[in-house]
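Worked Example 4.2. Read the sequence first, then its structure tokens.
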Amino acid sequence: MFNAGREDAFRTIIKIDSNFTDLPRRGEYGRQVSMMEKEEERSQMMNLEANLARMDQIKNQMESLRAQMMSIQSILADHSSSLEALKEIIETGEKEALMPIGGSAFLKVEIKDTSFCLLDRGGGIFMDTPLDRAREVIEKRVESLRNTITTIEGTMENLLKSYDEISRSAQEVYARQMSGGTGPQGTF
């Protein structure tokens, strides 16, 4: 009886062993894990390189947007100054003004006709325009410039958030690589 039970147990072991012939044998499992780790490491390095390239791209976009913003702010300051001068002339009927001649030099001039001004209508074409209409046109331009600045600021804010997220991700991957692990806590 004892032998019969032993034989059944032996048959069961052989049956179980034959079901697991596809499993790696002693020593093979370590090589498979090592290949998986190497593939994961390679994938993470490619991801790190892609993240660094994207960070450079975002940095370049931010620099371009900053330059555009400075240019637009300069144009806005010029338009705002023109708008204030037009408003003052309309309200006071002032006939004297300072005319810039360059190099921070001005001439004191007397305005003969305060009912019209020459307004750039685009493409370097200037037209006689009634002061009220000129004020309306410049106010619309100022509003448009401010909206453009707001849009650029929003775009820059979104880019900065993306940059920060990518930077954190890249730092995590780099830290895992330096610690020798591939998982979130240095192991996988």
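Now turn to a second chain, presented in exactly the same format:
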Amino acid sequence: MKSGLRGRVLSVIGIPLAAAAALVFGLAAVPLHAATLAVTVSILPVPPEEIRVMLAIAVGVVALVGGLYQPFLAMSYDEEFARIRGVPVTLLYFLLVAIVAVAVVMVIQVVGLILVIALLTIPPFIVERHCRSLATMMAGSVALGTLFTLTGLWLAYALNLTSGAAIILVAGAGFGCARLVEAVRGRRDRTRAAPTAD
């Protein structure tokens, strides 16, 4: 069951990632002034005032999620049990939708409309196999997303690429490396578990 669920999750993430990767490979080398369409965006022209607003919103979201971590955790794992325990599941659900909407609006400023799904899904997918709690998964996803963004910005500056496309290329490379490592480890574990002939 777990492998089937993971396969479906991989399909949900892999299909948009493949489309996004194909898109950014074609756009990464386009000059900055020609690629700032709805498809991919450069964060470099974003005014400092908007960056400060985005930072303030990010801090507010982190504080909100941190303060409501236990109710969110209960709702995420067992909605019916959370209702029995008195957790306002409906209110938290709409609050979570609002937080996701705010995150999407902020990420659009970084990578563009179409590539949002890749930056929001790749870090959690890579991290979740190595975490034992939701809190560590959230922290790891933030750290990995930050690493992808900074690395992509550095590549965009060094190679004169569109920053949004460069960030997603880095994230896609990280996704591919993670899948490769998982495949190698899985094959090694199956080899060790296979019975040896006498």
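Notes for the reader: The radius of gyration is 19 Å. Residues 1-15, 26-38 have pLDDT under 50 and may be disordered.
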